[in-house]
Design goal:
Radius of gyration: 15 Å
Helix content: under 10%
Structural class: mainly beta
Strand content: over 45%
Distance between the termini: 13 Å
Shape: elongated
Number of strands: 4
Amino acid sequence: MTDTLRFSRIVRTADDGSRFVDAELELTESTPATGARPMAVAGMSTAATVTYLRSA
């Protein structure tokens, strides 16, 4: 299974303001542990503390 997660992120502008930007992450199916249900998982973003998951 390959899917896409669409989201909005906030970015800094040149005038020290901010704005929303549409973005997408590719999700791939992964089974995190034996007996667990498969999950749609995205790789780490440039903000290394964020992980995106989507499960059934």
